[in-house]
Amino acid sequence: MSRRVCASAAFALIAVAGAASAQGPMLRLTPMEIESLAQGGAGPGTSGVAGIRTTTLYGDPRKAGPYTIALRAPPNVRIAAHGHRDERTAIVVAGVWRFGYGRKADETLVKTLPPGSFYSEPAGVEHFAMTGPEGATVYISGFGPTSTDYVEAADTPKP
Predict the structure, then answer these.
(1) What confidence tens digit (pLDDT) does each residue in 17-54 have?
(2) Residues 105, 82: Cα–Cα separation, whole Å
(3) Domain 3-155, CATH 2.40.37.10 — does that match?
(4) How far apart are the C-alpha atoms of 65 and 59, rounded to whole Å?
(5) How far is residue 10's CA from residue 27's CA, in Å, rounded to a whole number?
(6) Are strands 118-121 and 78-83 parallel, antiparallel or unpaired?
């Protein structure tokens, strides 16, 4: 997927999130500007799995209000079944994201989502994800505060 399409997808997510708050900041970010933003490990609103990098593009997933995060998952990552308290939507902007709904990470329930794909994470609905050799970048938008609640407590990543 071209950088122009990725940037357009990101802007669409931010615009939708911004529509919920008339007082929100006005942002225009190019892919290079997004890359230069502070990146951390698996931050708020993500699975907490080691190797995942998160960049907050808009808002704060820990606070009330709209937010958008960029989640970069390395190759061959598996994220166990979990849910979030807020309703979220996402766009795959790079790589291939393998995503499924269910209380267990069952590969037969996975749909392969290439760049440009859209999916939802309804509030409280368990889901899971994985990457193959190419890894993936996904832009996720929701209305915080968010949470990550694993189906099996033993699957919760240790800090």
Answers:
(1) 444 445 678 888 898 888 888 777 766 667 778 889 99
(2) 9
(3) no
(4) 7
(5) 11
(6) unpaired
